[in-house]
Structures are given as C-alpha cells and as structure tokens.
Amino acid sequence: MLEKLDLYRRMPKDEYRQLTDKYEPRFAELQRKLKAFKIPVLIIFEGWDAAGKGTLINKLILSLDPRGYKVHPTNAPTEDERLRPFLWRFWVNTPIDGGMAVFDRSWYGRVLVERVDKIVGKKIWQRAYDDIIAFERQLSEEGAVIIKFFLHISKEEQKKRFKKLRKSPATAWKVTSEDMRHHDQYDKYVQAIEEMLSRTDTAHAPWTLIEAHNRRFAYTKILRTVVQTLERKLSEKEFEQEQPGNTTPVTAEQESASILDQVDLNVSLDRETYDEELKYYQRRIRELEHEIFLKRIPVVIMYEGWDAAGKGGNIRRLVRGLDPRGYEVIPIAAPTSEEKAHHFLWRFWRQFPKAGHIAIFDRSWYGRVLVERVEGFCSEKEWRRAYRQINEMEMQWANFGTVLVKFWLQIDQDEQLRRFKERESNPAKQWKLTEEDWRNREKWGLYKAAVDEMLLRTSSSRAPWHIIESNNKWYARIKVLKTVCKMIEQRL
Fold first, then answer.
1. Read out DSSP for 41-105?
2. Of the residues 151, 156, 263, 367, which has the fewest C-beta atoms closer than 10 A?
3. Angle value at C-alpha 88, between 82 and 92, nearest 5 degrees
4. Tell me, what DSSP letter sits at residue 252?
C-alpha cells in the first residue's frame, strides 16, 4: 500500500484556506450533533516518528469544544497496565456516547513497536490481530465511529526532520535514541506496517493513508475524511431512528431439551463432612492465593444463578480465609448512567484484576443475555451478538493467562419458593426479598430458556461453565471451593 502513495503532493495556500474555512466550522457543528445523537467517536493516529501526528492532532481539535473530547497519548505501558490484558488500557479510555477520544498512537503498538523490537513473541503479536479486530468491531456494533489514520513519510524525509529538530535546543529532546534506532529499522517497520494495514483494514474501521510530507495537504485530507465519515454516520443514525425499534420482551418459551433439567438437585452433604471439607478447602484456597500472587496469575470468579440460589452465602465462604488485599468482590447491579453511555462490556473491563489478584463478580456481563434479554432492556439484535462479544472478551482474558471460573447456581422452583417464604417471615432477611424477585419468578420459563442458550453458546474449553447443584447449600459451597482450587491448581 505505502509504495503507491505520492508523497510529494502539495496544496496551494488559497485552496488550503478554502477547504479549512469550509470543513472546520462543519466539524464543530458535527461535534454538537454527535453529542445529541449520543454517538461516540474514536480517531486513531498512527505513523512514523516525526510524521507530524502531534501537530496535526492539535490543529484538528482547535475548532472543537474542548469539553467534548480527550486526547490520549499512548506511551509504553506502565507497570499497572502490563499486569492486565494489553487492550485493557484502551477499553477504559473509550469515550462515552456523544464523546470523542483521539489516540496519539494506539493498540497498534502491539503489532508494530512490540513486534519489531521483539518486546513480545510472534505468537502474541500474531494473536493480537484477532483481538484488535474484535475490539474495533464490538465498539462499532454498539454505534461507535472509528476513524484510523496512518501518516506516511519517506526514510529520507524522516531523517531530514530529525536533523532539524536536533538543531534547536527547544526541540532536540523530541528525538530520542529509540527514535534513531527505529529510523535504522525503517525497512523492518515497512513490512510490519504493510501487514497491519492489510489485516486490519475493515469495513467498520478502515484505514486512511495520509501523505504527510506537506502539512497543508495532510491536514486537509484528515479534516475532510473526518467530516465526511461523521456525516455518513449521522445520516445512518437519522435513518435508524425513523425505523421502528425492537426492544420488546422475549415471549417465546423453550423449545428444546433443557440443560438445566439434567441437573441432579438431590445431591447433598451431611454437616460433619461439610465442616471438615470447608475447613480444608478454605485453607487450601488461602495457600493458592499466595501462589498466584507470586506467579502473577489473575483469577476471575463469576457467579450467576436464580434469585435465592445462595450466591451471597457461597461468596462469603469462598473469601472467608483469603487475604483481603488480594481479592475484591464486585456486586453487579443495573448499569449507572455512565455505564449505559459506554459499550456494555466497558464496566467489566474496568474491573479486571491486576495479575496476581482475584476478582469475584456477583452477577456479571451475562446480564445482557439474561435480564436484558428477557425484560426487553435491549434489542434481540443486541443480545444475540452479545454471545460472540462475550466469548471474544473471555478468550482475550484467557489468552492473557487468566483463570476464569464461571458458576451457574441451580435450584428448582419449589426450593426457591421455600427460600422466598423463609426470607419473608424472617425480619433479619426480609431486605433480601423484593417485588422484582417475585416478578422474575413468574417468568421462570423465559429465564430458563435464556440460561440454557447462554450455557450452550458461551461454554468453551478456556472458559467453561460449572453448574452448581444448589438445593443443598452445603453441597454447593464445597463444590464451588473444590472447583476454584482445581482450576487454579491446573493453571499453576
């Protein structure tokens, strides 16, 4: 691709002024419309050292309301960032609906600098292509606009710019020994860049190559591309709003054999065995907590299950012997206004634990294909594509080395009713029972169908589901402890 660019294109001043006078006010107007339509925008600048990224970014944003955008300069990952999957630091910086994020370098560092400088192995940077494509597709599917620029200059032009920068004491610091090493590696970078462009140029996030020898030409091409891309997105959004939406609750009952019906809920433990095994496994998991910290292995434990299935009591027994500095319990309720303004997976990426720590989710990202599906809080199109998005996220976590343990706590309707009535009659437990619990119980069949499909579509060898027979709480607690210990031991 790069060799086909005419790097010596120029733009006369008159034409430059004419184009900037036309497109800069339009860009500012579009920013206001994007906010009204709640469309998030990500603008990514990649390119050679000294290609002018900083200058062009600064010029591009001058006409905008500074309250509506944020510029993210991407440097080498910090220690905190290295202890999480490489996309974590970009997920947490994705913009809210209607906001704009401008990245001065980005997630493509993994397949450029980290590849050429051999900071990561071939297997890791090759796998990063799939992660990047999934990341951009997921954001795009939820309405984000992704505009990607690569600023190209020749090796001779780069050398000339480095020389000019080094002449002035005010700018000499900008040219580092690393920059000069990359200049010497120019041909190796060309190979990596060509592969990056070809493998990640997609319909939802295409690359625009910028001939960056002439700043006027480069700026107007960037500005025009941004404006035209945003205009197309707004036209699509206006058309979508004219079409009837589909956010009605699911009404179809389960049609096929149920996975849940095959669960034997008659299993149980006597008190003596329970006490003995509880003591043993709580001690064992405390030992494992220390081992995963030393070996920097992240652990994510996630609970889903019927109301009154015993999630809270189960979690309390799981963490009773743990060092509180090494774990966090994360209760998941309905999303806040800030969380609703992001991709639905954003709030879970934010909570990913540092390597060596444990995150325990009391309910999880599966709300999209359970509560939101059954209650009609999202469209059918949204919850159906969520299966793939969830699988992609979990695979990325697993590839990072995460022990991912997913529990579904299963009880039958009779046991749930008994527990509801027990809570109702006990003043100390009445707060646990809500009108929503009773409403959810009336939709048991719909939830059962959703759970069955969830288990079928999102259980994999790297992130399997574990169904916990929970009519007997003692049995359920011990099985959870055994399972967590076994999965951590296997990873170790």
1. EEEEEEE-TTSSHHHHHHHHHTTS-GGGEEEEE--SPPHHHHTS-TTHHHHTTPPPTT-EEEEES
2. 156
3. 130
4. P
Note if the pTM is more than 0.90: yes
Burial of 111 (0-12, 13-18, 19+ CB in 10 A): buried
Pick from 314, 405, 281: nearest CA to 353: 405
Helix 271-294 to helix 473-491 angle (10° resolution) is 30
Place of tokens 């309720």: 333
User: What tens digit of pLDDT does each residue of 328-374 get?
Assistant: 999 999 999 999 999 999 999 999 999 999 999 999 999 999 999 99
- CB environment 232-260: b (16+ within 10 A), e (fewer): ebbeebeeeeeeeeeeeebeeebeeeebb
Q: Yes or no: say if 424 and 294 are a contact pair by the CB < 8 Å rule.
A: no
Q: Which two tokens stand for residue 195?
A: 């592969």
The residue type at 396: Q
Tokens of 151: 């600023």
Spatial CB neighbours of 416, under 8 Å, sequence gap ≥ 6: 306, 307, 308, 309, 441
239 sits in which H/E element = helix 215-242
Q: How far is CA 77 from the centre of its chain?
A: 17
